[in-house]
Amino acid sequence: MNEELIIDLQSDAYFMQQALREARKAYAASEVPVGAVVVHEGKIIGRAWNQVESLKDATAHAEMLALTAAQQALGGWRLEKCTLYVTKEPCPMCAGAIVHCRPDRVVFGCGDPKAGAAGGWINLLDSNPPLNHRCDITSGVLGGESLELLQTFFREARKIKKLQNWGES
Amino acid sequence: MNEELIIDLQSDAYFMQQALREARKAYAASEVPVGAVVVHEGKIIGRAWNQVESLKDATAHAEMLALTAAQQALGGWRLEKCTLYVTKEPCPMCAGAIVHCRPDRVVFGCGDPKAGAAGGWINLLDSNPPLNHRCDITSGVLGGESLELLQTFFREARKIKKLQNWGES
């Protein structure tokens, strides 16, 4: 049996693939392609993609929606024994939300050196204190795929804008 | 006519009173008493109080709910020509959300030197860059009343906890 065919259903790579599936749904909906899942004891209890434009709500990032779904699934706001997987490093809003919800771990795909809040620009997930919770952070899981999806999206968006400008001129 | 009786319906103090009304609703619901309103061209278009326990959602801060309500009222996520009034300095999550929604101004009551993200601990509202929006900040509007409400809440909460511990011992 080819060992490469065995999928480890508990691995970070497996759950990040699930987050990437969400990100691709965002791409298909013309949203910035970021996806997230929340895992509790090996089971996905929340999944979401970025829906800022669809919901006309600038706070509707993938992480925020997945955290809210996970809280609903557990019937409370403490996400103990949970890991959040997200294809891109969380922004300050999402990192702040993560600290409030208290998952044990955060795993992300590509980093955001410009405005990331899990070590890229600042680190709100391990501020040690003043914020009252810290998370273990794992970065770079399927980072290449996550970044490529974002880059393709923005390249296409620029192309469409150029065509629109051409049509208007 | 007594000038003191004239209420300036466009003043920061007036709108902060409205935010304090929301905070008192939180207090009555046994929630940490923080309230917020969003004002667009002199009109309140979103109002909310902290509902973390009621909604079992740690992201349900007054600011988040008021921002979402305001976006719904305007039919889009850009809160241009808007001011957010909130009784306590925003946390990193809420400050990050404010930057995404882009109101012109943020006015808050009491500061939070420990974990505030509008200058108390860090300043996400005027990071100049990397974040892609900056807000004018006014602090200390009805700060005394806002702080007193929070202090009373936590004093009562400690008293109740002490009684519960006594009952269990």
Question: How are the SSEs ordered, and which strands pair?
Answer:
2 copies of one chain form a homodimer.
Chain A: H1 12-28, E1 35-40, E2 43-49, H2 62-74, E3 82-88, H3 92-101, E4 105-110, E5 136-138, H4 143-168
Helix pairs in contact in A: 1-4, 2-3
Catalytic activity (chains A, B): adenosine(34) in tRNA + H2O + H(+) = inosine(34) in tRNA + NH4(+)
Function (chains A, B): Catalyzes the deamination of adenosine to inosine at the wobble position 34 of tRNA(Arg2).
Active site (chains A, B): 63
List keywords for this structure.
homodimer; 5 strands; alpha/beta; five-stranded mixed sheet; hydrolase (chains A, B); 169 residues; globular
Describe this structure in words.
Two copies of one chain form a homodimer. Chain A has 169 residues and is of the alpha/beta class. Helices cover 39% and strands 17% of the residues of chain A. Chain A has helices spanning 12-28, 62-74, 92-101, 143-168; strands spanning 35-40, 43-49, 82-88, 105-110, 136-138. Chain A has a five-stranded mixed sheet. The radius of gyration of chain A is 17 Å and the shape is globular. The first copy, chain A, starts with 11 loop residues before the first helix and ends with a helix. The A-B interface holds A 52, 56-59, 64, 67-68, 71-72, 75-78, 91-97, 99-102, 114-115, 117, 121-122, 124, 130-132 and B 52, 56-59, 64, 67-68, 71-72, 75-78, 91-97, 99-102, 114-115, 117, 121-122, 124, 130-132. Chains A, B: InterPro entries: APOBEC/CMP_deaminase_Zn-bd (IPR016192), CMP_dCMP_dom (IPR002125), Cytidine_deaminase-like (IPR016193), tRNA_aden_deaminase (IPR028883). Chains A, B: Homodimer. Chains A, B: Catalyzes the deamination of adenosine to inosine at the wobble position 34 of tRNA(Arg2). Chains A, B: It is an enzyme of class 3 (hydrolase).
